[in-house]
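User: My collaborator and I are trying to settle a disagreement about how two of our proteins should look. Neither of us wants to argue from intuition anymore, so we agreed to look at predicted structures for both before our next call. Could you fold the first one, then the second, and keep them clearly separated?

Assistant: That sounds like a sensible way to settle it. I'll keep them separate. The first protein:
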Amino acid sequence: MNINRRTFLTGASVALTAPAIVAGIRPAQAATTLTLGHGAAPGNPRTVAAAKFAELVAEKTAGRVKINVAGSETLGSDSAMLTSLRTGALDFTANSQGATSAIVPELAALGLPFLFKDTEAATRVLSGAVGQELNKRFEAVGVVPLDWWDNGVRHLTNSKRKIATPADLKGMKIRTPADPMTIDIFEALGAGTAQIAFGELYIALQQGVVDGQENPLTNIESSKLFEVNRFISLTAHKWESTPFLMSKIAQARLGADLEAVKAAAQEAGILQRKLSIEKSGQVLEAFKKNTSIDVTEVDRDAFIKATASVAENWKKKPFGDFVKQIEAAARG
């Protein structure tokens, strides 16, 4: 089912203001219909996995639960969707780590510079004590993590010049998400930063509001950012999750079907991570073959050295012990 922001908000308002009426007119055998929102473009692994989740839920619940999927920021930015999730106006979101760290600050620590070499390493850490600690923090704000999908290893693009060392960033303004870790990383590298919603990023780059941005290769490809940023630097400066989240209000509505929905999320997550890894490799090869794109291998040691202070500063935060726990788990 295709839904837009207006119909979603109208329906959510009615559901929240008149639950007794809705319950009274619902047929005894009517399916429970829930909504999943995300910000990824068509073809993105997140988009494919979200559709798979809806399919699996219908299958595992014998049609008792139906999931409507709205992608491409149809229901607003990642931050707006998180607000809707916490109020119960939205039931699920495959969101961004940066936006989600606004409600669970500890989550941003997963993006410590050069902490994880790949998705498999990060997934291993999240499947253990670190993931359990994060679950507790999400529960405290009315949100239930169902899985940790992959948002990939992030790289830098710009419209000005090759960037191979931190010094090459001097004088540049880089768009970052509203994520304190990413902002700290690029400030440590000597760049200026600006926070712009992902849905507005292409135009901002096209108009020169910012010189560059950082994202996984799959996002750079699916949102066509390479069209306005031809210089791609393989910085691999951080890994990010895509937290797949459920509202506690939605959880209460599922009753006996809750475990089936959780299983569907896990299964869709396996697919999403697989597709994300595969797509990243395919996109990199395509970029290297594209003569209109300049792909640069960077001086990794120089970038690691320039950002070393970021982890030390984060260990001084109120949740510094958790930062240390993540670092130890990643290197264990």
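The second protein, kept apart from the first:
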Amino acid sequence: MLPARRFTWTTALVYILLILGALVVLYPFFYMIMNSFKPGPEILNSPTRLPSRLTLSGYAGVFATLNMWRLFRNSLILASSITILNTGLSALAAYAIAKIPFPGRDQLFSFMLATMMIPGVLFLIPTYVVMYRLGWVGHFYALIIPAAISVYNIFLIRQFIIGIPNELIEAARLDGANELQIYWRLILALARPVLVTVAILNFIGSWNDFLGPLLYLNNPSTWTVQLGLYQFQTSVPGENAQEIWASMTLITVPLVVIYFALQDQFMQAFANVSFK
């Protein structure tokens, strides 16, 4: 039988700080859900109070005004495609840089890291010109292909793969496995926590992306949930307030569910990252 833990003021202070931190994090989410069930006038007059009566008028207005199922489908297609492509290609590049010796490997990796210092906004116009000349404006390709690989994700996966013992890879080579087989059967299995983490970050980033779809998706049939939410933007204060809060809730809930479902893998990935 394990001895009972002694209560100390330090332990109490730690728990108090953790509870306060949890409240700070959860309050905005609660605030959003609470206002999504209020009528518009009550949101404007008392946004921080509990609703005097619950109403689904905001959700009804969202589905009546927008084709939410199409918006969700488009966002899911974009986010899933970018997540799968980026995670797979970034992992392949990270494995090569971490475990396959080749001339100029360290210099190449240093150059890749240096590109992270360049503000992404500088590439907006050149990228748009390229997409326009390829005829991809108005199509998902303009968002999926440029996002197919990420230097940050390569760096994150590489730091995890470095921690995998070289003896396992050498043993696989002695058994006759080639580099692609080692990557597919060994590396992907051992690096699952960091791959799940990268996939979560990719999915959330793609799902929440507003500027990219705004630039490239000029056809309403290809709009995402973020562009759908933008349609409720108006110059009249308070107009469509209940629809705005309801649509924000609908957009946010899937991300929260995904994160909590995979949070163990997320924390394990950062706990095992090596900084060599």
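Some points you might bring to the call about the second protein. The mean pLDDT is 85. The longest helix spans residues 68-99.
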